[in-house]
């Protein structure tokens, strides 16, 4: 007999997963290798930036009061009392009608309160003494980068869980993090099941397909920020699948399988979860594709049973496994980012289930436009290549027309969202 | 005397760089390690997908003509003539009023032309023979995934230079690429100059700053798809800088330096290019920040002289070095993606130069909104942390108001654009 399963809403299913998702471990790595990782601690400014009043230009540090009367007809001459290279500090005190040659980034000498750019002065020498001639008046503070104007000491510049982009890398260097505390990448095991699967290197045979889901998932794990451990593919045989799942659990932080979760005679995952003593969180999601997605937990470790259909597998990963990985990375916006976009194509046939259409985003004069990225059946693979969003079409009794505002979930975004699943409803604006 | 340099428009400068940028080399790597790389050859379908008519569901393969009279009051009974697991092929011919048990993904047996889902039939057994009862009529082709409906043999599924995302990975696996021809990452050397620079691990000292630019550039190189070779930092000393640049050139595909390109007394890069015999492509860009950005070429190898100011350095990399890296990766959209956004803040003070404001993007009901990401002086570092776009404010005699449409260049995007630099003009729409 066919098992009857009760479909649960996407949001409720994701909530169940996040209840078992937990923060991971911390490790310290070199700054050179930290790009693309996630901070395991808040990044705090250990000093003001700049840490001293400095010159943003090559030029001369002066006392603005000396230039009060300067015009192009009546220039003011200042004696060049010295020179400071970047990284050098001027020892003396600068007196009235004196100037100091200063390089970009160098500290403003004692007594000076403005900088004039090199291009704006005339230099001349009299009796072996250098002078400059200034043809305009300056105000106190002109062309000075003041201590702390960029960042003040103690400021939290990036929170734990932040993705390390080039700007964060620059801040880490500025504040002395030659070693960076980052989230250890969770080890995510991947196991493909299905007697129809060929190795990628094998020739096609009648009735068989190459194992594409496993490699797709490895790539999704990397995009999410995790580390994959590929555990191979298995035929539909209960005992070997059971042993493989059981052994995998001791080696990984979470386990993803693809295939075997439906209600067919060779779908062994439900029975495997049962024999393991794993608690099934849900086994039917009110969505298309991916309704058979099953998630279980055992001793707090998550087991993701994704569909064997490529598109359904892809969707199941992004909705359920991605947030679990991002939570391990201390990220507090672990879900796909949700935005509003204008639908680029009609979906006139109603569907009782919420659909997640693989879509491509584009902009039309700054308006986000979402169109299906190709052939969109649950078994399709070609539409995944150009997909950078899911178009969310809530289930119901009516269809959707081109030009309507719809929710989209962004796939290539590193910001994420805290919780995208509230009030996903159709909005029939045109 | 101060050298007078003539500013050249951004587009013209980028054009000069791309004239010397060239495609890189190809290498073959395993499918598991191909994520995030760029294809070195077109990805072509070597077979139809599906490669045979198959069942998208668990159920029974039937002949639709046998169900013509089936209703809930007058169901039709079909004899179960056999069973096919996924990956198996049914040998015989299915006759009138026969059905074959079929699993998801399995090949439709000879003689059948529709599939009915498992949930929609009643199974019963009479005299050791299994039967199913069907209560509705089916049409020819119902619930069949037809050969080639996803992808047809010979189709170019992704062009050379395409970024390998999880969807592309799935296609590579489907079409038997256990080894993938990818673009070899160009080796990009990085050298920081400036006597004011401390190592990241050093304590702050008066007048000095930690070397943040070099690490920021390493991170930018990785984001662009290149491989960095960090060559250390040097004091402002002509001979040691000259030797370091000369030696670096033989080890890298292109070289990036930061600092030493301005017109100050310690800015040695122009003299180094001169002594090397490198041809300077430009040394003054009509933009803020980064106007002193200098690019030279020697025997076709590009030397990027970026500013020592963090924001100016960052901008110079993304505008000039990024496309050179992406071109090496065979990518034909090597430049930052340009879109229209609504300005989130006033910039009332006019500036004769085109400004590239480090900005953060957000969406307001599907409209792209761009706001400055923080303190935006050329020496600033904090604004880079949250920047995911440059807001382009063309130079001129007037300012910009919040709500205006402006051009933005996206930093975290993998699509890129062919040429974003034509007709970057202010559009005074509100």
UniProtKB/TrEMBL annotation, chains A, B:
Enzyme class: transferase
Alphabetized SUPFAM superfamilies for the sequence: MoeA C-terminal domain-like, MoeA N-terminal region -like, Molybdenum cofactor biosynthesis proteins
Keywords: Magnesium, Metal-binding, Molybdenum, Molybdenum cofactor biosynthesis, Transferase
Highest taxon, organism lineage: Bacteria
One GO CC term, this protein: cytosol
Cofactor(s) listed in the protein's UniProt record: Mg(2+)
Pfam family, one: MoeA_N
GO biological process: Mo-molybdopterin cofactor biosynthetic process
Sequence ranges assigned to domain MoaB/Mog in this UniProt record: 189-327
Cross-referenced InterPro entries: MoaB/Mog-like_dom_sf, MoaB/Mog_dom, MoeA-like, MoeA_C_domain_IV, MoeA_C_domain_IV_sf, MoeA_linker/N, MoeA_linker/N_sf
Biological pathway: Cofactor biosynthesis; molybdopterin biosynthesis
Catalytic activity annotation: adenylyl-molybdopterin + molybdate = Mo-molybdopterin + AMP + H(+)
Family membership: Belongs to the MoeA family.
Protein name per Swiss-Prot or TrEMBL: Molybdopterin molybdenumtransferase
Species of the source: Peribacillus muralis
């Amino acid at each position: 007999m066919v098992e009857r399963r009760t479909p649960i809403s996407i949001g409720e299913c994701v909530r169940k997963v996040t209840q078992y998702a937990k923060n991971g471990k911390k490790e310290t790595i070199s700054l050179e290798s930290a790009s693309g990782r996630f901070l395991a601690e808040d990044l705090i400014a250990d000093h003001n930036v700049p840490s001293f009043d400095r010159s943003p230009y090559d030029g001369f540090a002066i006392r603005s009061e000396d230039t009060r009367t300067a015009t192009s007809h009546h220039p003011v001459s200042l004696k060049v009392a010295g020179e400071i290279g970047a990284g050098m500090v001027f020892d003396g005190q600068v007196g009235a009608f004196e100037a100091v040659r200063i390089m970009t980034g160098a500290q403003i000498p004692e007594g000076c309160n403005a900088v004039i750019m090199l291009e704006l002065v005339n230099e001349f020498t009299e009796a072996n003494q250098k002078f400059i001639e200034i043809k305009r008046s300056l105000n106190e503070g002109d062309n000075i980068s003041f201590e702390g104007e960029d960042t003040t000491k103690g400021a939290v510049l990036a929170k734990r869980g932040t993705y390390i982009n080039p700007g964060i890398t620059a801040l880490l260097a500025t504040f002395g993090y030659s070693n960076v505390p980052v989230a250890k990448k969770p080890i995510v095991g991947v196991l493909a099941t299905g007697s129809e699967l060929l190795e990628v290197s094998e020739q096609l045979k009648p009735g068989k397909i190459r194992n594409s889901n496993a490699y797709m998932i490895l790539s999704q794990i990397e995009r999410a920020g995790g580390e994959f451990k590929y555990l191979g593919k298995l035929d539909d045989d209960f005992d070997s699948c059971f042993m493989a799942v059981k052994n995998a659990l001791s080696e990984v932080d979470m386990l993803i399988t693809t295939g075997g979760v439906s209600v067919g005679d060779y779908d062994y995952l439900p029975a495997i979860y049962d024999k393991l003593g794993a608690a099934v969180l849900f086994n039917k999601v009110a969505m298309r594709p991916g309704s058979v997605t099953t998630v279980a937990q055992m001793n707090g470790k998550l087991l993701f049973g994704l569909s064997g259909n490529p598109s359904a597998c892809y969707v199941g990963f992004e909705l359920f496994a991605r947030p679990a990985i991002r939570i391990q990375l201390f990220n507090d916006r672990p879900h796909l980012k949700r935005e509003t976009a204008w639908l680029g194509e009609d979906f006139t046939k109603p569907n009782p289930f919420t659909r997640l259409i693989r879509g491509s985003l584009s902009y039309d004069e700054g308006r986000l436009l979402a169109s299906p990225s190709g052939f969109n059946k649950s078994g399709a693979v070609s539409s995944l290549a150009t997909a950078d969003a899911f178009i969310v079409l809530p289930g119901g009794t009516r269809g959707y027309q081109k030009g309507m505002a719809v929710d989209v979930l962004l796939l290539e975004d590193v910001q994420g969202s805290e919780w995208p699943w509230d009030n996903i409803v159709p909005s029939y604006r045109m």
